[in-house]
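agent: user wants the structure for Bifunctional NAD(P)H-hydrate repair enzyme from Streptomyces pratens. delegating to structure tool.
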Amino acid sequence: MRTAYSVETVRAAERDLMARLPEGALMRRAAAGLAAACADLLGRGYGRVYGSRVVLLVGSGDNGGDALYAGAGLARRGAGVTAVLLTPERAHAAGLAALRRAGGRTVEITDADADADADLGTDAGTAAVAAVRRADLVMDGIVGIGGTGGLRPEAVPLAEAAERSGATVVAVDLPSGVDADTGEVRGTALRADLTVTFGTHKPGLLVDPAREYAGSVRLVGIGLDLPAEPELEALQHADVARLLPVPGAESDKYRRGVVGIAAGSARYPGAAVLAVAGALRGGAGAVRYAGPAARDVIARFPETLVSDRGPKHAGRVQAWVVGPGIGDDAGPVAEVLVADVPVLIDADGLRLADASAVRARRAPTLMTPHAGEAAALLGVEREEVEAGRLAAARELAGRYGATVLLKGSTTLVAGPGAGDGGGNEDGKGNGNGNGTAVRVNPTGTSWLATAGSGDVLSGLAGSLLAAGLSARDAGSVAAYLHGLAGRHAADGAPVGAHDVAEAVPGAWRDVMRG
Ligand SMILES: NC(=O)C1=CN([C@@H]2O[C@H](COP(=O)(O)OP(=O)(O)OC[C@H]3O[C@@H](n4cnc5c(N)ncnc54)[C@H](O)[C@@H]3O)[C@@H](O)[C@H]2O)[C@@H](O)CC1
Ligand SMILES: Nc1ncnc2c1ncn2[C@@H]1O[C@H](COP(=O)(O)OP(=O)(O)O)[C@@H](O)[C@H]1O
Ligand SMILES: [K+]
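agent: tool returned. relaying tokens verbatim.
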């Protein structure tokens, strides 16, 4: 499991550790890891550290201190190091002294440079931008977990020059300008090829849009003692393998779970077929389809138990999926919401579900909106959900007392207690899941942005619910398999949703093999 902790938690853990260590030891530990990562990159890209050109962008806090110490380390190994001090009077004094002792140079950006014009077109500004353009490696120590808002205007031309130069850009702890706790990018932020982060991942490194700015992320341990419950967690193969339902000698189709699918309409029969396609690969022992597309479903999947009457006339199931392609018929949604089994609500079902009926449910509910559907439920613009995915998922989960899987470039799964900062996620004791951490899916690919792939996901997650997984586990395991299946199926070329469904067993095997 990969985990991320909030800034508040990181700060508390750092305070505890610093109290037990000599002055400055923690920063030197972080800087040593940072210098090693940079030396590694220079060795690979440029051939060696000796003679390479390194530029440090240095802000006013300890993030700049990390960069200065790491720069000193590289200078001692023969790199030509130039530190651009964005607030010279507040640059980390001991770090700066260490850099100067090691032979590093500085360029000082003064208020006059910053005020000169937007292009930093003064002597110092021009020298700084020119140094960045010539660099082999640029280290971003402008701001770390102490940052608020986007880059200040004087840092923007330097960040742009770094992005356009051939240099490898390494962010210290976080790319400057992104929000560490939320993954939001409200102004300009620096784009890194690599982020070297200290002690733990921060939520912003795992959630878009900030995640995009971080490039690949390397974690340097500094000995922090962190609490058991993180803010965010990302499943990995071994975690998923432990959660996948595997039949044993005692199993029969009913014990493995029956999943009911209430999806599709005369207008959208394909949604029913795709949801069933996902459900058949999700580990339930049988798939029951109830709705107007029964003939289409049976023609494609003869193993499905079909009925063209509503869900309430269908036989017993252990979980329902309702919504994909049902159009405007609220009947099936109301019927499944009163069932005392887990229910997954997707697509049209999200619009048609009565909020109070969802909140009144005692069995788990898993809602699976994309950003547009989430925005409609929250009464905000889609862009607002995309900019603040974590907040949107938590807000929806809280409002509906449900587990929410917010689809998109980083799919999130938030339980109903995910916003209350502690306690049991499953406030109603209804098996929505254990733990408050929001799950973030690491396997997605943008090739999944293809019509119908969400229907496959809802069938897959519903099947896992029927097999007995909690809403949080079913949602996050389904997103993981679906993302992996998307990657396998696409392999760098466009795919259709049915290809994704067909690739799920391969993804499952891949996970089981470790
Ligand atoms: N506290 C510790 O023990 C450790 C901290 N470490 C480093 O210290 C960092 C945190 O240091 P600080 O608390 O000094 O905070 P930062 O270095 O992140 O930022 C400090 C200052 O930057 C200014 N600032 C805020 N937003 C800005 C923006 N958008 N643009 C420009 N300036 C802005 C503010 O004046 C703020 O006080 C971590 O991210 C990490 O890199 C590491 O050395 C590991 C140990
Ligand atoms: N940019 C993206 N990167 C990764 N995954 C994406 C991206 N855009 C969409 N997806 C995934 O593709 C699927 C699309 O689902 P959805 O929006 O419901 O489409 P549909 O309604 O056509 O089935 C979801 O699993 C979603 O997470
Ligand atoms: K930084």
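agent: one observation worth passing along. The chain has a mean pLDDT of 94.
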